[in-house]
Write a structure and sequence with these properties.
Elements: E1 13-19, H1 23-38, E2 44-51, H2 55-65, E3 70-71, H3 74-79, E4 85-88, H4 95-104, E5 108-112, H5 119-133, E6 139-142, H6 149-159, E7 166-174, H7 191-194, H8 198-214, E8 218-226, E9 231-233, E10 241-243, E11 249-256, E12 261-267, E13 276-283, E14 286-291, E15 297-302, E16 313-316, H9 339-354, H10 362-381
Parallel strand pairs: 1-2, 1-4, 2-3, 4-5, 5-6, 7-12
Antiparallel strand pairs: 7-13, 8-11, 9-10, 11-12, 13-14, 14-15, 15-16
Helix pairs in contact: 1-9, 4-5, 5-10, 6-8, 8-10
Length: 392
């Protein structure tokens, strides 16, 4: 139901502490700020504290983003009595340590994707989440694109059998912010901090969306990865260059446990593509297509239509009967990227209040991590053709 500011709420509160306050921290803050002002919830989040290593920076972020206090040590944030839920928005290198400590301290945890930098770290996190679940504490991975209403509608159509048996899945996720060879060597370009490049940054979303929509895990992959720019300027003025130790792009095919085939393409050097996530599923009974640059639209083909009426039709996903839309605007009034984080907060708060298992779980995040590791292993095995035989 729509939020009515004239009606007082009796919902109990839950204190949220967030670690990290850059781009993703700002996006998560938007979700926590707005969720209880839009949805009628059984729990109301209180933005208790935000944490970052730079004292001046984190205090400024707390003021700008709406957090009640600032900390410079994540251990102090976890120890706060007014924090019951820890939201992790840091680079992947610190996900495992923070998440495991928070779960062991009796906190609920939301962790940004990818879950970790390695399978071993993800396994430790999933084990900690299983143990915490026995004590009533929940853990969820932040794959926010699941919360796009159009993709949630696609999942609903698949689950209802409207596409029949899924045979083909195609996902591409393309960006261009690394086309310029003079773009500086940020943490996202160092394996020790990010785990991988476009593969972990964009491929994690692609894999999660594909598995979520199909409702089955990937069981095998064949892959190629490439780094096109191997040296980049260090971010400190006057310094020299440093080595890029992650991939710029990855291509891989896959097979689902259901037998469906999939293809994936992810790149951060695709000139002209800013945040181009595209998904298509083809089944025996129909198909769906989605483009993040038109995120309020889903394209649907019903293969049972007569041939002279057959084709893809556009569904404007803004009706109150569509996923997440019951609390937003009248039909035809579009939502944006930031709303996915509000929906993410809604789903986690409802799970905590009811004791339901949140999705995607840390086990789901571990499955994605295993696929990413298999892609890297496959790419490493694929031979490079060093000479081409002549004709005849």
């Amino acid at each position: 139901m729509p939020y009515d500011s004239t009606v007082p709420t009796a919902a109990p509160t839950i204190g949220v502490g967030m670690v990290g306050y850059a781009f993703m921290g700002a996006a998560h803050s938007q979700g926590w700020r707005t969720v209880s002002r839009v949805f009628d919830l059984p729990l109301r989040p209180v933005m208790a504290a935000v944490c970052g290593r730079d004292g001046d920076g984190v205090r400024a972020a707390a003021e700008r983003l709406g957090w009640g206090a600032a900390e410079t040590d994540w251990r102090r944030l976890i120890a706060r009595d007014d924090v019951q839920l820890v939201d992790i928005c840091t680079p992947g290198e610190s996900h495992a340590e923070i998440a495991v400590a928070a779960l062991e301290a009796g906190k609920h945890v939301l962790c940004e994707k990818p879950l970790a930098n390695t399978v071993a770290e993800a396994e430790a996190m999933a084990a900690a989440a299983r143990s915490a679940r026995l004590r009533g504490r929940l853990a969820m991975v932040g794959f926010n694109y699941r919360r796009t209403p159009a993709l949630a509608l696609a999942r609903r159509l698949v689950a209802k059998g409207r596409l029949g048996a899924i045979r083909h899945v195609r996902v591409s996720y393309l960006q261009d912010w690394l086309v310029d060879p003079d773009f500086p060597l940020t943490w996202r370009l160092r394996r020790e901090r990010a785990g991988s490049g476009a593969l972990g940054d964009l491929g994690a979303h692609a894999v999660d969306i594909a598995q979520h929509l199909v409702g089955a895990p990937l069981t095998g992959v064949s892959a190629q990865t490439e780094t096109f720019v191997h040296e980049r300027p260090l971010p400190v003025p006057g310094e020299s260059t440093g080595e890029v130790t992650v991939d710029d792009a990855a291509l891989f095919t896959g097979r689902f446990a259901s037998g469906a085939l999939a293809s994936f393409e992810v790149s951060r050097v695709a000139a002209g593509r800013k945040n181009a996530l595209r998904v298509e599923l083809n089944g025996t009974g129909g198909s769906v297509g989605f483009d993040l640059e038109r995120l309020n639209e889903l394209y649907f083909h019903d293969h049972s239509d007569p041939a002279d009426e057959s084709g893809f039709r556009r569904i404007l996903v803004t009706e109150q009967s569509h996923p997440y839309l019951e609390a937003w605007w009248p039909p035809g009034h579009a939502l944006g990227y930031e709303h996915t984080f509000t929906h993410q907060a809604r789903d986690l708060l409802r799970a905590i209040a009811t004791g339901a298992d949140p999705e995607p779980s840390f086990a789901d995040g571990l499955q994605v991590q295993r696929v990413l590791a298999a892609v890297e292993e496959s790419a490493g095995r694929n031979a490079v053709l060093t000479s081409v035989p002549g004709p005849g």
